[in-house]
Amino acid sequence: MMCPESVLVLLAVCLPLLYPAMALRAEGARAMRYVMPVLPLPALMLALGAEPGWQLELPWLLNGGLWAMDELRRLFLLLTAVLWTVAGIYAVGYLGDHHRRRFCVFWGLTLAGNLGLTVAVDVGSFYSFFALMTFAGYGLVVHEGTDEATYAGRVYLVMAVLGEMAILAGLLLASAAADSQLLTDLPAAVASASQRDLIIALLVAGFGVKAGLPLLHFWLPLAHPVAPTPASAVLSGAMIKAGLLGWLVTLPFGETALPGWGALMIVAGAVAAIGAAVLGVCQRIPKAVLAYSSISQMGLMVLMVGAAMADPGRAPVLFSVIALYALHHGLAKGSLFLSAGVSLPAGIMRRAAVWLLIALPGLSLAGLPFTSGALAKLAMKEGLSEDPLDFALAGYLSPLMTAGAVATLLLVLRYLWTLGGKLENRRNPPMLAAGWLASVGVSLVAFWWMPWEVEGLVKSPVWLPAPYQLWALVWPMLIAVALAGLTLLVARLVKQR
Amino acid sequence: MTLNAWLPVFALMTSLVAALVIFALPEKGYRLRTAVNLGAALVKLGLVVVMVWGVFRGVDYGVSFTMVPGVAFALKADALSMMFATLSAVLWLLTTVYAVGYLEDSPNRSRFFGFFSLCVASTMGIALAGNLFTFFLFYEMLTLSTYPLVVHRGTEKALKAGRTYLIYTLTGGAVLLLAIAWLHGVEGDLPFREGGHFIDADADIHLSLILIFILLVAGLGVKAAVFPLHGWLPQAMVAPAPVSALLHAVAVVKAGAFGIVRVVYNIYGIEASSLLGVLEPLAWLAAFTMLYGSVRALSQVALKRLLAFSTVSQVSYIILGVCLFGPVGAAGGLVHLLHQGIMKITLFFCAGNYAETLGIHRIDDMDGAGRRMPGTSLAFTIGAFGMIGVPPLAGFITKWTLGSGALAANMDWVIAVLVLSSLLNAAYFLPIVHRLWFREPNGSWPRERRWGRLETNAWLFWPPLLTAVMTVVVGVLASLPFSPLSWAELIVLREYSP
Description:
The complex is a heterodimer.
Chain A: H1 4-18, H2 26-35, H3 41-49, E1 55-58, E2 65-68, H4 71-94, H5 100-119, H6 123-141, H7 147-178, H8 186-192, H9 196-211, H10 219-226, H11 229-250, H12 259-280, H13 286-310, H14 315-339, H15 348-366, H16 372-383, H17 394-420, H18 430-444, H19 467-496
Antiparallel strand pairs in A: 1-2
Helix pairs in contact in A: 1-3, 1-5, 3-4, 4-5, 4-11, 4-14, 4-18, 5-6, 5-11, 6-7, 6-11, 7-8, 7-9, 7-10, 9-11, 10-11, 10-13, 11-13, 11-14, 12-13, 12-17, 13-14, 13-17, 14-15, 14-16, 14-18, 15-16, 15-17, 15-18, 17-19
Chain B: H1 3-24, H2 30-57, E1 61-68, E2 71-77, H3 79-102, H4 109-128, H5 132-150, H6 156-187, H7 206-223, H8 232-235, H9 241-249, H10 252-268, H11 270-276, H12 279-298, H13 303-323, H14 327-358, H15 369-372, H16 374-388, H17 394-408, H18 413-438, H19 458-476, H20 484-496
Antiparallel strand pairs in B: 1-2
Helix pairs in contact in B: 1-2, 1-4, 2-3, 3-4, 3-9, 3-14, 3-19, 4-5, 5-6, 5-10, 6-7, 7-10, 9-14, 10-11, 10-13, 12-13, 12-18, 13-14, 14-16, 14-17, 14-19, 14-20, 16-18, 16-19, 17-18, 17-19
């Protein structure tokens, strides 16, 4: 007798995997886009309805399959399912006639890969889903067929293939060291393997391509802006997190202290968080600004990954913070990307409302009180606070986080500024508007009912913030606003001359 | 003699009889010829299935006649035979279907299908041969029966390619014969045996054994297209698509690779080969060939030539696997015998479809063909991704198993070769896939033909789709009993604990 979770997980993976079959018949192909929002629903039910802890053995699959769910995977699955649902709704209204059937096919395949990799616990199926997402994602990136899209696609593909190869070699070595085909056995084996540093280097670099690690990120600001808007949203919100998840499930966290790797990741994270902001504020295309913002935000998560590598005792706490942060960022960033394609309605009040809804998820990224960002920032601050951490760079983390918060808001302001000149004045297609509004709602409201965990990190998490935290959250934002204001002032003065 | 003794003979005779009947049939007898072709293929498949089940349960199938004193003609079915026989039987059926569609309205079909059946009979003989002498007989019969297929078109280019083909393979055959005769002089008539014969060989014959090994590999390496003996293969691309498909996937290159497997496992024995120190140099040669073939493929403009160089590269995966001392690596090599066959035949079928339907021979004419021929292009995409080794397809299972085996054998450098080879495969296959699906067509196709509702002739349409499905299935379901991987593990189990 199969338990309901097993049926649900098979459905969650197979539905988007078989969806492209609709393209075979003309009637099916015409109806295809209306099915897009439905595809992630079984996964959504699974993430919300089923308690973690179930597992499904598929002994005939590859080298022996095992799909299962723990708290960490649950949040990643939830993020993936939610984001693909709202982006799917949005896509119904967004898609034009240009190769629509092809887009839908790749959409389904990419989704199947992205969902599957969050539940896969055996190496074979995890890597399969990862590869499916990577290669099918190419179809989304190059969809528009412009020269920029083709170029971005080529860079994406070259880097992705290099990444896949690093992952392959890393997984092969790790799996041989562990003498096991299960991801859960890898961290301990890698920690004690004779080729430990080689394995870690391969896995860090391989998944780093997806996660936008500095120097491996080149594809990201090219690909995210040229993809159709709903695809950008899932690329930047959900698929980028697959690299992060890859690290979390393969690297030897909590096994042994890796001060060298920890320091390297912290430096990389800092470079990403600040450097991407510097490059990002110079961009003119709204979605390119957002792409750099994603690199910058991933930098903060890399910072936490580094801390967890350096201090094994802190890893479990940091894991739940990373998952929370990934969820928060994915939802907010997804909503921001979707907002790049909306149009402004008539009427000053309505316009103001639309602008407010565009801006709020951005301000949430920057840690605006009463948003998911405030919770994530406070949890991160607590998780990285100096006292319990035991390694050399720990003292630098706090200023880095503050600088990161300033950088975040600057990027969001830059995004709003560039977007201001681009939004058109006309009616939105209803489904497009519905998808965007849903994404805003999920990011600002539904987030509070999601099963994240900040036990012991943040007091009374839902009723945020307590007065003492208010100032900690707000002053970096004030600096950013002041900087932006100063820039505008200088720009005006220069112009007047 | 019991029925079990005769089953291998029957399996061999089905194609042989079919060949004779087809030669006798008039050129116009299209329906009857097709019926004989397909009937024989189905009967053979049935016989092979029965034997696979029997071998799995441990039944001995074998028959042996003494030709001249000291030399026996022996047929025998063991696990390894059945792997090759299954490949041959399954792909023969599909290729026959394909060839019927492909050669529609072309002249000399009777001759073609006759030699086609002879060629398959030879591969069956190679699979079921019980000793080196019998193996050699069928190996040479294969050379002679494939020559008319290579030159089938009769053009000057085809004749020239055929001449090259003959020079290479006959020379290889002569070297092989020399080696077999020498070996016979040293040890007498050696049947193929799990575990081999030479684990306890005297130290004073070691040098002869090493030299014989080199000669054997040189003779077999011609067909297996090991560098620097691969020159005939890209030229042989002038043959009609089903011939190329069969040559590359089952018959010729596989016969060479299969022969090397037989020599290492069932003549020398894996442990003796390892003791003699012949495996490591062969592994290096195979690794070099893997990279060389791929590098050459990068610069090709004709689709079939690209596929030919890809074959040069891929067949050496098998040889590399054989050279990895240890059960896992061996399974990785053996499983590729089937995997490469399935994937490569898919690609050749597709290449044939593009040529027949749209007149496309060059890679730069393939722009936008995915929209015009979605089924064929889907099959091509799956085959190409399989070749790169993208999970969960067949090629990934090979690569993963080979890699694990290399690590178990402490040959970590193999990982680097595998990664590099995959990168090169990606570098020449992915641009084609991009062209198929993401480029707009260049106006009109070079030479377009239409067949009713399907994108191409139904006889051409279904075989590549079926083999593409197989590429997915043997990868995804690799852990099921009777999957190629499970069967390879069974062979290895019997080899390592005879």
